[in-house]
């Protein structure tokens, strides 16, 4: 691979510290990193501009092949370069510490450590570090500061690269070449400090200590997973990925760490996913409760309640990592986009969307919260009541739906089903807590919603639930209906609908969201989460052997380190932002459903 070539989306792996994250290619190049947060401007951005974007590459100078993996049950990435003359191992990670260790060990604000080790023979290596801060808007100037390494000012923060290899300033970048033999070791420590005083990284015994502490941290966290089924390694990988996509200071979770990776190459289906959708936070809380990560699940629910405090009982679709609104979407016209897919977006206008389904997803998470005997104070009870009353008052209105399809609001069946879910869960919460409320009204309106969906949202001739009331287009969200308890698995309309969806939307184990003209350019790929919803739905109607076979195939659709994008083209090409939280959440849910179909 040429040094300036851009990789396929599936060729990337994720490292992070639950505050920011980097994408590392299978050629040893960090091509995406935002500092200091997920939603901050990018510093390495070659992912969105192959020629002008920044990167941090370490690789052999001659032809090589690679094999990579995560150190078992951790988020430390190993890439092995195999050349004609030898083998070199590259270990990439962001250090993570326990709260107790943080009080004892002083660390730079943000860090990436890259360890190069000679395993066999001798190999000539090269390194290039070329940051392009502020989403590629300017070129920083590096300065040498003795043994401490090289420094550059980035948006008022200190960007620092230290190494025990000799480096050279070449115009706008740092570079180096060296030969490493078996048993040899070189270290590169990239650090960023937003405010003074900055802590300088030093190449000494601390590097190996931080590596071992990080391994212990992640293994201790992975060891808390209570899933012990046949897919444990894959489930733990998805859980570890979700943990990387969480923002520790606030307990938020971003939909993905990237922006503008296209859902169709060369099209305008490009969005910024570095923000927090209530839907994803709710689903993540549910997954973590079921995996035994109670502390994290409670944190996500608390973020939900914090983020929505100013707009309750109305809920917005998306918030930033601190639960704030006002995310402005704009186009970055000087970046060419991934493989020429423009526009590149920063920010997301989804906050202007009106989506009724989020009430069901949020209330479902709150119901699990209550089921797990988590503390519920008077303010939370008031929030439950107000949200349920809001749904009861507003379920009859059209909305933009889960897929945010352009155009006017419509009466999406999925949105109505999730309104029913919100009222059903609110009623159960009220009963459990002995909470004074309008429970009879909620249950009455819940029955009204069921009646209208069965009358206008199920097409007798198509023998399927439809995308909209009175419509004829199908939508893969119907796989969710038995999962939330809306329809009894023994109701014949469910297997009929599943069969119709499989015929219309499925391609082997993959599933499209819908087959309508949505007004956007290009033809998108199949949607990963929908494929896992199908697995769950098949379990519900007793087709468990088929569900397990599909799940096995979908496991093989992950990339070589177990990560999923938002979409997968039928030829296997990954599309959309990566890795995608919803894909990994749905992967976990399907594995749990296979283990216990009564979930």
Would you kindly provide a written description of the structure presented here, covering whatever features stand out?
The protein is an alpha+beta fold and about 600 residues long. It has two domains: about 10-220, Distorted Sandwich (Beta-galactosidase, Chain A, domain 5), CATH 2.70.98; about 225-595, Glycosyltransferase, CATH 1.50.10.10. The protein has 14 helices and 28 strands. α5 (about 280-290) runs parallel beside α14 (about 580-595), α6 packs across α7 and α12 (about 530-540) packs parallel to α14. The radius of gyration is 25 Å and the shape is globular.
Low-confidence stretches: none
Overall pLDDT level: 94
Helical run tally: 14
CATH architecture tag of the largest domain: Alpha/alpha barrel
Number of strands: 28
Number of domains: 2
Judged by helices, strands and strand pairing, the structural class is alpha+beta
Major sheet details = 15 strands, antiparallel
CATH domain class name of the largest domain? Mainly Alpha
Q: What global shape is seen?
A: globular
Strand content: 15-25%
Helix content: 25-40%
- Computed over alpha carbons, the radius of gyration is 25 Å
Using the coordinates shown, work out and report the CATH topology of the largest domain: Glycosyltransferase
Query: In angstroms, what separates the terminal alpha carbons?
Result: 46 Å
């Amino acid at each position: 691979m040429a040094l300036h070539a851009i990789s396929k989306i599936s060729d990337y792996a994720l490292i992070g510290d639950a505050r920011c994250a980097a994408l590392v290619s299978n050629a040893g190049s960090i091509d995406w990193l935002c500092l200091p947060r997920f939603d901050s401007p990018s510093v390495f951005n070659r992912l969105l501009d192959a020629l002008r974007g920044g990167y941090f590459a370490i690789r052999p100078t001659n032809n090589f092949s690679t094999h990579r993996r995560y150190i078992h049950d951790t988020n430390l990435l190993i890439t092995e370069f195999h050349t004609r003359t030898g083998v070199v191992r590259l270990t990439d990670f962001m250090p993570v510490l326990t709260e107790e260790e943080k009080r004892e060990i002083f660390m730079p604000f943000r860090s990436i450590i890259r360890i190069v080790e000679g395993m066999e023979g001798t190999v000539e290596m090269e390194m290039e570090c070329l940051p392009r801060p502020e989403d590629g808007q300017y070129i920083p100037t590096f300065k040498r500061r003795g043994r401490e390494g090289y420094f550059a000012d980035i948006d008022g923060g200190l960007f620092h690269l230290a190494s025990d290899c000799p480096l050279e300033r070449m115009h706008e970048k740092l570079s180096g070449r060296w030969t490493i033999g078996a048993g040899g070791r070189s270290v590169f420590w990239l650090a960023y400090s937003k405010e003074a005083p900055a802590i300088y990284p030093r190449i000494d015994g601390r590097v190996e200590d931080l590596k071992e502490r990080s391994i212990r941290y992640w293994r201790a966290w992975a060891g808390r997973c209570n899933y012990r089924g046949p897919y444990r390694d894959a489930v733990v990988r998805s859980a570890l990925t979700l943990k990387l996509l969480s923002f520790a200071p606030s307990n938020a979770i971003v939909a993905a760490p990237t922006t503008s990776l296209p859902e169709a190459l060369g099209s305008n289906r490009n969005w910024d996913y570095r923000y927090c959708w209530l839907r994803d936070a709710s689903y993540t809380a549910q997954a973590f409760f079921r995996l035994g990560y109670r502390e994290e699940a409670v944190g996500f629910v608390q973020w939900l309640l914090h983020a929505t405090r100013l707009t309750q009982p109305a809920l917005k679709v998306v918030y930033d990592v601190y639960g704030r609104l006002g995310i402005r979407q704009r186009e970055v016209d000087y970046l060419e986009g991934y493989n020429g897919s423009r526009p590149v977006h920063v920010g997301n206008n989804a906050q202007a969307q009106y989506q009724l389904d989020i009430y069901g997803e949020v209330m479902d998470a709150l119901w699990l919260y209550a089921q797990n005997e988590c503390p519920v104070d008077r303010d939370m009870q008031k929030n439950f009541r107000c949200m349920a009353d809001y749904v009861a008052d507003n379920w009859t209105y059209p909305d933009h739906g889960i897929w945010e399809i352009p155009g006017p609001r419509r009466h999406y069946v999925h949105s109505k089903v999730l309104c029913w879910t919100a009222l059903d869960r609110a009623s159960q919460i009220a009963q459990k807590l002995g909470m004074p409320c309008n429970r009879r009204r909620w249950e009455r309106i819940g029955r009204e919603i069921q009646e209208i969906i069965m009358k206008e949202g199920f097409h007798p001739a198509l023998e399927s639930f439809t995308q909209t009331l009175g419509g004829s287009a199908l939508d893969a969200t119907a796989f969710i209906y038995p999962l939330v308890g809306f329809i009894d698995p023994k109701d014949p309309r469910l297997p009929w609908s599943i069969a119709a969806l499989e015929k219309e939307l499925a391609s082997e184990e993959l599933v499209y969201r819908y087959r309508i003209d949505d007004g956007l350019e290009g033809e998108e790929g199949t949607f990963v989460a929908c494929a896992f919803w199908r697995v769950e739905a098949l379990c519900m109607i007793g087709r468990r052997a088929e569900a397990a076979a599909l799940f096995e195939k979908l496991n093989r659709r992950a990339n070589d380190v177990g990560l999923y994008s938002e979409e997968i083209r039928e030829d296997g090409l990954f599309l959309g932002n990566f890795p995608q939280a919803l894909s990994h959440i749905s992967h976990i849910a399907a594995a749990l459903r296979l283990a216990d179909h009564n979930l």
